[in-house]
Amino acid sequence: MSEAIVAFRQRHPKVSLEFQTETSSRSCYDALAAGHLDLAWVTLGGPVRGIEQRPVVDLPWVLAVRADDPLARRARVEVADLAGIRLIRLPQNSTSGARLDAAFAELGVRSSSDTGVADWDTALLLAELGLGHAVVPALPGHRVPGGDGPLRLVPVPGLPPLPVGWAVRRWDALPPLARVFADTVADHVAAASTRHRE
């Protein structure tokens, strides 16, 4: 997304951009409904009253492990391999955590957890520190240390991808430059996701 923000800024240098961090899709929807935001980048779930959602990309899941973990040497991890692994878990009330839990239940995977986090970056950090394994989405453009770094991200292709995209109150009421910003980000993220898969 950072490349898209830079590209938008270069094309529209006089436009004011304000970014606000929220801790969940739910809090993004609340901020939209209250009129505090024009756009929110969210993990997409079911319909939300008064909010329009637009999918942008489906993110594949990866297993974050320390470089010295036996799973780090694999090209991929099968869903069945996750059974019994101590996972750093996302909040159950988060959209991404609920989607992951639903996928595990549907696929018959039972995992344990004694560490929980509120965001993916913290999950990656804790996995890097060896406090467990983390199943997180592969974020387009997210850089992970190379072969000599402390963290590895191993694809888990058997899990259904995580849909992410934009949420707004109404697309037809969105200011024109906010729509241009949303389209710029969507185009860049889709391109980065395609490059990531190649």
TrEMBL record:
Biological process annotations from GO: regulation of DNA-templated transcription
Domain called LysR substrate-binding: residue spans: 3-189
GO cellular component: cytosol
Domain of life: Bacteria
Protein's recorded name: LysR substrate-binding domain-containing protein
Gene3D superfamilies: 3.40.190.290
